[in-house]
Amino acid sequence: QEIVSGESEEESNGVNLMEFSDEILLHILSYVPCTDLVLNVRRTCRKLATLCLDKSLTHTVLLQKDYKVNKDKVKQLMRDIGKEIYQLNMAGCYWLPSSTIDHVTRCKNLVKLNLSGCHITSLRLSKMLSTLQHLHSLAIDVNPGFDASQLSSECKATLSRVSELKQTLYTPSYGVVPCCTSLEKLLLYFEILDRSREGFMLSGQLMVGESNVPHYQNLRVFYARLAPGYVNQEVVRLYLAVLSDRTPENLHAFLISAPGSFAETGATKNLLDSMARNVRLDALQLPKAWINGSGLLQHLKFNNPFYFSFSRCTLSGGHLIQRVINGGKDLKSLTSLNLSGCVHCLAPESLFRKAEDDIDSSILESLVVSCCNLRHLNLSAAHHHSSESIGNHLCQLLSRLKHLLSLALPVCSITDVAANVEKPPTVSKLVPQTFGRKVRIGIQTYPRNLADQANQKIESSVFWALMGSLRYLETLEIIGSSFSSAMPRNEPAIRNSLPPCVRAQSVGDSEVAAISQVTYLQSLTLAQLPNILTGSGLIHIGLQCQHLRTLSLANLGMMGKVVYMSALMDMLKHCKCLRDLRLEQPYFCAGAQFFQALSHCSSLQRLCIVSRSGTLQSDAVMSFMANCLEVIMCHMFMGESLTVCKSLQQSIVRSFQADRPALNVVIFPLLHEDLTEVIRDVPMRHLDEITLFKSRVAEEPPNLWW
Asked: CA torsion sign, 113 to 119 to 124 to 126?
């Protein structure tokens, strides 16, 4: 309707959209959600009616973040173009009733189907898969009550042809893995809780009737990601037991992401020994206990590796260069490297080294030269302190990586060594890092005007130069090496945080302003920057980074007061593309002025605020929800009473749920003992992508799943 109504105005200006070639119009229409194309746009005129049904637009249907889609729209969509759909992604459509899945049976030609996060029973899955004879790629959840014996012979025949399977487990089970006899890619996400809702301890033993053995003989990719908990570890060992008996000859990617301690056993040792003898890998990630103190990396063979993750390992820089990068040889194939929490990875050895000691710049230089095509690099959660040697600062060496798309660094690594030497040691006292009463700070010693700051510090900053060299960077994380979120996964909220690194004490507004040079930035995370005094750099980011879609700020400046609130509100007025906002700051006041500024973010979809002793104004929240029609997630963990939180949550749901089918609202006291019970009901899409704080750079191999 907008297109038709605008034709007269366009014709008066000499431009008519319908005069463009079909190729240009198809390219424009490719940015429109498929539901809008089929159910709305194609009804505007005859030409668009034809173009909207072009195979290039109906071949792949993506509903995973179409938060406005409902059961009726899906039903109509499948009825109109079901036979034309070859790839259907409904991942994370938690709001759709399970009966919606019945309409997928119209898509007889489906080759790829993603139903992760969707409600589906064993019987519905069986009925649906029985009709999809061309399916080769499948993603599903396995929930309590899943029964593989309910799968029909036709369903099992379809599964026998599936070569790619992604399975998220919420209960101990093999799921459909034993039925998939042609597996080449297996992705497993273990989200099993150690305790039931009633408080009973769960067992990692598989359910009765699940003794079938998985078929791994054709496997090329094995990936397992474990949530915290011993049950997840028990279940993944059952999946690995088959691999330890016979390692697939074509295996080229073996990845296990496990938090905390995941001990090596005799079976896993046999598996790794077999891999060292029989396969050449292109991607590798192992639990830290499997690598630390072993000579495994010395024996593993690599072909053309594109992804390595040694997160939280005690791997030294010497071993990294000698055993992984082959003494500095050409590794142009490597595009993604995760060294998060690898505290000694830039030092020649780790035996007598302290985590805070200076890095060996020659190791980083060898890494940069050998892996010159890196696109994703994570160096967070460690103290990477540069020495005073001219030209060997970490930022100067990283500026050679011209292809970087995402980068994660610890705060202490970006500080200018010369500036640190010149600064008096009293800086840290000016910005107290403990909770307490307001402390007067000598603001007059710091320039309030951003231009003055640039003249004094930015022009000679190594971090400024790094940001200027990475013009096409899309994701940036600057996280304090000792930062930990107040809201961990399966534990009570953390009440106290560790102080920032001494080297990080000078990092503040001017460094934040330097980020504004990255004009194509889409995702930004800043955590534990102690020297934020006004937040003035945020305004520059809001003005210059017009593509910013995700913003996460945590513990900036002094902890007893939100010193950057005024600048944040000014910044938000310019963030027209912002979709996700996460704020974690003690004493945060979510009041009328804040929500009025946030209302300028017309594209905002998800909001999460975590604040010890934080306050909120219920009327302001309701007004914000009424003004921002795209918001479908509102998570607030504050210092308010349970009564206030429940009342506001109920009011939001009652007022907006009908018009926003995907609406998910959680408002709860941060320090309440039942917080973990509330968290377990949050849809995995929101929990994993925004509610829980974590570094996401190089977390998984690129293009792991479509």
From this structure: positive
Instruction: With CA atoms as reference, report the closest residue to 118 among 96, 135, 149.
Output: 96
Same domain, 472 and 568: yes
Residue 455 has pLDDT above 90, yes or no: no
- Among residues 273, 339, 274, 331, which one has the least CA distance to residue 302? 331
Q: Determine which helix (DSSP H) or strand (DSSP E) holds 511, and give its type and residue range.
A: helix 509-514
- Residue 682's pLDDT is 95
pLDDT tens sequence across 23-64: 999 999 999 999 999 999 999 999 999 999 999 999 999 999
The pairing of strands 60-62 and 475-479 is: unpaired
Q: Same structural domain for residues 577 and 663?
A: yes
For the record, the structure tokens of 292 come out as 């630390």
- Please give the Cα distance from 585 to 635 (Å, whole number): 14
Q: Has residue 635 been placed in a domain?
A: yes
CATH number at residue 655: 3.80.10.10
- Which tens digit of pLDDT belongs to each residue from 339-391? 999 999 999 886 677 878 899 999 999 999 999 999 999 999 999 999 887 77
Angle subtended by helix axes 536-544 and 565-572, to nearest 10: 10
Instruction: Retrieve residue 106's tokens.
Output: 């119209």
**Closest by Cα among 620, 564, 607, 621 to 587:** 564
Is residue 328 located within the same domain as residue 471? no
On whether residue 586 sits in a domain, the answer given is yes
Q: Is residue 476 part of a domain?
A: yes
End-to-end Cα spacing for the chain: 33
Among 352, 386, 420, residue at a domain's last position: 386
Q: Of 368, 386, 404, which closes a domain?
A: 386
Q: H or E element: which one contains 407?
A: strand 406-410
∠ CA 121-117-662 to the nearest 5 degrees? 110
Residue 319 maps to a domain: yes
- Three-class DSSP category at 469: helix
* Contact status, residue 2 vs residue 45, Cβ threshold 8 Å: no
Distance of alpha carbon 557 from alpha carbon 537, whole angstroms: 13
What is the per-residue pLDDT across 629-642, written as a single tens digit (0 to 9) for each? 999 999 999 999 99
Rounded Cα distance between 4 and 409, Å, is 49
The token duo for 652 is 């939001």
Considering the domain architecture, whether residues 518 and 633 belong to the same structural domain is answered as yes
Q: What is the pLDDT of residues 194-242, one digit of tens each?
A: 887 777 777 777 644 454 667 899 999 999 999 999 999 999 998 998 8
Domain that holds residue 360: 303-386
Cα(217)–Cα(231) distance, rounded to whole angstroms? 26
Instruction: Tell me the two tokens of residue 427.
Output: 């800086």
Dist. CA 464–CA 395, nearest whole Å: 9
Hey, what amino acid is at 76?
Answer: Q
pLDDT of residue 225: 97
Q: Are residues 562 and 665 in the same domain?
A: yes
Mean pLDDT within 53-80: 95
Both 542 and 662 in one domain: the answer is yes
Do 369 and 507 fall within a single domain? no
Same domain, residue pair 376 and 478: no
Q: Are 581 and 551 in contact (CB under 8 A)?
A: yes
Q: Which residue has the tokens 């000016």?
A: 430
Cα separation, 676 vs 647, whole angstroms: 20
With bands split at pLDDT 50, 70 and 90, how would you rate the model's confidence at 14? Answer: low
Query: What is the rounded distance in angstroms from the CA atom of residue 649 to the CA atom of residue 667?
Result: 6
Q: What mean pLDDT do residues 520-525 have?
A: 98
391: Cβ contacts below 8 Å, ≥ 6 apart: none
Query: Which pLDDT band, with edges at 50, 70 and 90, does 328 fall under?
Result: low
Give the residue from 491, 490, 526, 496 showing the smallest Cα distance to 508. Answer: 526
Please compute, for residue 286, the number of CA atoms within 13 A of its CA located in the half-sphere on the CB side: 22
* 3-state secondary structure at position 627: helix
Number of structural domains found in the chain: 2
**Which residues face 168 on adjacent strands?**
141, 189
